[in-house]
Amino acid sequence: MAFLIRTIDFTAAGREIIRDRVVEQMSLTVGRAAECDIHLPDLAVEQRHVAITTQPDGMLAVTALGTLGFALDGRVVSEGTIDPRTGGEIALGAARLALAREADGTIAITIRQVAAAEGSHDALRGFALASVLPSKRAMSWILASAIVLLLLLVPVASHLLRAPAKPDPTGKTPGTVVMDAAWSPGALSRKHRSLENNCESCHVAAFESVADETCLSCHKDTADHAPMPRLAKGSPALSPGDAVQWKIGEALGKEGPLGCVSCHSEHEGPVRQQAGGEAFCSDCHKDLDTRLTNTALADAHDFGKAHPQFRPAYYASFGAAKPVRAALGAAAGTRPTERSGLKFPHDVHMNARGGAARMAVSLSQYGKPLECKDCHNLSPDRIGFTEVKMEDACEGCHSLVSGRTAVGGFSKLRHGDVKDLAQDLARISSGPRARVGPARQRPGQLGSAATPYRADFGRPVRAYIGISHALSAGGVCTECHLPTTGPTGQADLMPVNLPDRFLTSGFFNHEAHKQQKCTDCHAANASKAASDLLIPDLKNCRTCHLGAAAVKTKKIVPSDCAMCHAYHVPSGQWSPKGPSPHYRPPPSKAKVAAATARKAGT
After folding, report:
1. Which of 10, 62, 88, 517 has the most CB atoms less than 10 A away?
2. Cα gap 454→465, rounded to integer Å
3. Which residues fall within 8 angstroms of residue 344, CB to CB, at 6 or more apart?
4. Are 216 and 176 in contact (CB under 8 A)?
5. In whole angstroms, what is the distance from residue 291 CA to residue 588 CA?
């Protein structure tokens, strides 16, 4: 089957130009795409709009290929047929395709463009609403004038003529400026939604940016990142373009580059305020020492490539009043040594085949070898850990039973205060000794924290001596505590000093890492002394956490600065609310010297 495609165009002078071409195929495609058999460069036409196919009976089937239909002899359809003997017309956008059979049997398709003014004087137009309305230009001016009057002049006049209103940061007082909501560029964030009807709570002065003083009237506990003069000195210099823009902004009442609104932008929709990106921190901290020559902070740029070693807080000497910070050295012997006043070998307690494991298996409260969670429990905030209490975590194995009572029960030494312990020991020494219970006949359940057992099942005299000399070397207390001598020469114990938190300059969520084992980060199963500071170093964290530009995988987590650090310190970081539950007043210098000498001797 042959198709004669005839295109009729007109020159600027109105002369008609006719172009013919013959296509030998059974079907044709019509559309805006260049590969179509009939190409119509009209945006109202789809890429592949219509297919014209020859039927066995000589009829022409016209089918829409896209979502838009086409006009066939004046009716909008998605498919239809044309008899070449009588002819038909297809309308696609501004093009008209007339189909008819020539004398030689060829199907002729004549394409012409409809004049732009054709049909503009249709009789039906007189019944349209547009025929009685002003022109589009007139309507534009009318609506623009109404917008200026209602949304600009009315609020300005209301502001100038109103009585001054007292700012209400709580958002309970309605705004006094009429139609001031029309000036809002967008919805407030989630934290400030209550202020939507009280613009003057933040915008105290008309046509001026929100001042830092206004922000701090509510956010009183929000501290600066550093003292403002030092913060300005540590910030990198502005580019010439940014400097000019800030000069203009400051002239119009806007705070400088270190103001609140330079980082905290509002009217961005009911969303949560997002933390600053990696560049927000690295712009200053990647070369901070070049501007602040006396800073103690090391340069930091990318957690995976340029980040200083962790410097945890710990007590470096027995009975110290304050913890110190030191970097975790990678080489052997360079890691900080913690002086907590305790003796606790983690490896002994975590050895699945050791004596501690066999003891735990026989106790109903454990029933299996000890794990980290048997002593360390997450705090209610799911970030840190609660205090390890001897009565809950240790007494199941390390009993403080001192004898039997007259009614058949057990008496215990009080734990936590040396004065209470001294009173209990004096009572044992001065009072009659209770009868020791019968010896254990066979292995079995030894007891638990709720039902304590005797610590020593040997001869009664041996057990009695161990309890009476509890504070001396080899006594019950020295199983976990370091013995020392008090100011008057009496036996005493080294005070326990443990910080509430080791990494005080960063944020770490243990709950987010619950899928990992504790020993993946903390080498407790290889620690032989309580002086080991079991804080993972930078290399350990980098096995999963790399910089913000890292590609996320099942193991790699892209980590920017805001994942662990806050800008507003100390209010944005962790800070202790009161003294540590482990803290005791520091001992005298004589006590510390005696403890050091005793430790050196052993």
Report:
1. 62
2. 14
3. 480, 530
4. no
5. 43
Q: How far apart are CA 522 and CA 506, in angstroms?
A: 18
Q: Which two tokens stand for residue 142?
A: 């009318």
**Alpha carbons 257 and 259: distance in angstroms, whole number:** 6
In order, the DSSP letters of 175-191 are P-STTGGGG--SPPPGG
Residues 455-484 pLDDT 10s: 444 334 444 445 667 888 888 888 899 988
Q: What domains, with CATH codes, occur in the chain?
A: 2-115 (2.60.200.20), 145-274 (no CATH), 287-333+482-506+532-602 (no CATH), 345-479 (no CATH)
Strand partners, 429: none
Residue entry with tokens 């017309």: 89
Sign of CA dihedral 174, 176, 182, 184: negative
Q: Tokens for 120?
A: 């503009």
Average predicted confidence (pLDDT) for the chain: 81
What pLDDT, in 10s, does the model give residues 344-381? 999 999 999 999 999 999 988 899 999 999 999 988 87
Single-letter amino acid, residue 122: D
CA dihedral 428, 430, 432, 436 (to 10 degrees): 30
Through-space distance between the first and last CA atoms of the chain, rounded to whole angstroms: 110
| DSSP 8-state assignment for residue 457 | -
User: Residue 208: what pLDDT?
Assistant: 82
Cβ pair 527, 345 in contact under 8 A = yes
Q: What is the pTM of this model?
A: 0.61
For 331-349, give the secondary structure using H, E and C.
CCCCCCECCCCECCCHHHH
Q: CA–CA separation, 310 vs 298, rounded Å?
A: 11
In tens, the pLDDT along 226-263 reads 888 999 999 999 999 999 999 998 888 888 889 888 88
DSSP 64-115: E-SS--EEETTEEESEEEE-TTT-EEEEETTEEEEEEE-TTSPEEEEEEEPP
pLDDT of res. 439: 45
Q: How confident is the model at residue 89 (pLDDT cuts 50, 70, 90)?
A: very high
- Residues 252, 205: Cα–Cα separation, whole Å: 11
